Structure prediction request, 87 residues.
Amino acid sequence: MHTQRVNIRQQASEGLGDMGLRFLGGSSGKNGSPRLYELDDDYIWQGYPVNDPDLLKQLEVPDGEIVVRVPKSLVTFLPKEPNGVAD
Prediction:
């Protein structure tokens, strides 16, 4: 399973993912976390799950959804334009 993850990351960084997954950036090295990807009209945030029950209760997270914590610095990898490329 770990090998598959590495391959998906490599494909995404090269823009070769079958689903159009494109790596936008990350501040923790080549295979670290957190990371930011683009998939069609969505962004995929890879980060650490929020498991604090009190925080999740405050957020009123619906069933089937999760909350992911990412550092503010990851926002620098968002494209300036919706269909643009991050610097």
The two ends are 32 Å apart (CA to CA). The chain has one domain: 2-76.
